[in-house]
Write a structure and sequence with these properties.
Layout (H helix, E strand, L loop, with lengths): L3 H6 L6 E6 L5 E7 L2 H7 L9 H7 L4 E6 L3 H15 L6 E2 L7 E4 L8 E4 L8 E3 L5 H15 L19 H4 L13 H15 L4 H16 L3 H19 L2 E2 L7 E8 L8 E11 L2 E12 L7 H13 L8 E4 L6 H12 L4 E3 L4 H31 L1 H11 L6 E10 L2 E11 L2 E2 L5 E4 L8 H21 L12 E4 L3 H13 L6 E6 L5 E6 L2 E4 L5 H34 L7 H10 L3 H6 L2 H5 L6 H11 L12
Helix pairs in contact: 4-11, 5-7, 5-9, 8-9, 12-13, 13-16, 14-15
Length: 630
Amino acid sequence: MFNIEEELKKLPDKPGVYIMHDAEDHILYVGKAVVLKNRVRQYFQVGYKRSPKIEKMVSHIAWFEYIVTDSETEALVLECNLIKEHRPPYNTMLTDDKGYPFIRISVSEAYPRIFLARKIKRDGSKYFGPYTSHGAVRDAIKLTQKLYRLRTCNRRLPEDIGKARPCLNYHIGLCNAPCQGYVSQEEYNAAISKAVDFLGGNTAPVKKEAAEKMNEAAETLDFETAASWRDLINAIASLEECQKITGTGGDDRDIIAIAADEGAPEEPKDAIAQVFFVREGRLIGREHFHLRIAPYESEKKEQLIGAVIKQFYAGTPFLPHEILLEKMPEDAALLQSWLSEKAGHKVSFTVPQKGDKAKLLKMTGENAKLVLSQNKEQIKREEAKTIGAVRALSELLGIPGISRTEAYDISNISGFLSVGSMVVFEQGKAKRNDYRKFRIKTVEGPNDYASLYEVITRRFLHGQKEREAADHTSFSVFPDLIMMDGGKGQVNVAEEALAALGIDIPVCGMVKDDNHRTRGLYFNGKELPIDTHSEVFHFITRVQDEAHRFAIEYHRSLRGKGQVHSMLDDIDGIGPVRRKALMRTFATIEAMKDATLKQLLDVPEMNRPSAIRVYAFFHDGEIPEGEDGI
């Protein structure tokens, strides 16, 4: 048994990360500390002033653990990794986890190539980005290859020069064929240098040349050629749309602004973090991220900005020299030191008050507000289907605080291979990792009530044993509500099984009409009608359909395996080893029937006489032409 008072005395006088758990072993919160002994004790000190959010979290803490580090910076890195891995509900979370593409030029090769890259590697290549659109990157690569006639092949040059004919790109004028030696290494690398300048934003020379050639073609009435140069100019203009001058100099910088929704203190809230990417003085793109702010959250914007910085830059490969912010985050010096070490160059935070940087920051904030207002309805609709539906279910049944629900169903054909399914929903969303299947062991024949009794008993008996042994798995987590696929009979069976184990969990039945459509809930001895257009009705239908689907799929898989087993048992001379080999090779009995003698001989563990026996069994004793039997 974890004794919080005793464990607090054991806390070390060192930096590290602490992890708070509830009674069900869910991770509630991850934090870092300069001195673990001082920081963790604060959560449990009587009279210590805490925010409503922390008060609520502390009321759920059953035990904690900690990891000691050598420095505060190491604790910061570990905190970021653990938050991203476990996504605790009382940490401010980014709900998106996105990657960003780069353009890579392999300048270390004798004849460099240009690629789309998903991350930066220390391979001597030149990288541009990150960009926020894979499509924009591909368009930029195609345009650059076309302008400078760069190779797209994977040939090893100069080793493979002249070993094969030039590809189609050479014949249509898109490549100078270095694979044939038609262009020297010096000439090719001069084109690469121009491509590097072009991707870096120096597009003026190319536009000027294209305009001159378009005009020349138009003067000679070669309108097709003129149109192609016009299209090239338009393509460059499209590329520049992603590289607008910001007027803040030629450095790399990111701009971060946050817009938060208003709401009641007890409700979770949404916010948007908008990030603008400026590279070499040009705005190359923007991205936004949803944040989930926990109930009773009272964090200031400084804390939210710190959370965004830690989670976003823990996963992105590129770090700019400067990050513009609305407010200086908490632990600013520590965060700057961590990012500088990660980047290999100095990274600084700036809170601009006037000038172009302040204007750019204001624009970023306005975009964040716009995205939040545009997405608010979508967020509300999603919540209505999940959290809102569960809240409505709580009100309908009079059971406060429903979070986890479990539903059960039985599937069989005339009692053959009876199976049970258990599906789990948390906060209105399916939690598939906690789904469980049950093969009925003690019931013979088509007795759904007895089968349900067995499933409920096995599930919660297993959970009780795990709780006693402090072995925390999904079975040790009990639901707030059990939903049975059926009415009064199924509910009574579940309640009897729970009573026999001394467990008190509310049980309701999902009742269907004569057309097998959900019509209401059976609870506390009476049927509760439900508006068929409501979100709670749609939620109940989803749960019922999911329990039914999961049971049927399991039964179907066992039925197929059972048919294969029974048929193979009838073949003389085919023992357990060869039966298993046949079942591993052929997915279905039909595939085994259609197999040729040669395919049967290719099965591991099969010899010629055994293969002929199997073939003859499925072909009414016939042996393939040319074979003389066993």
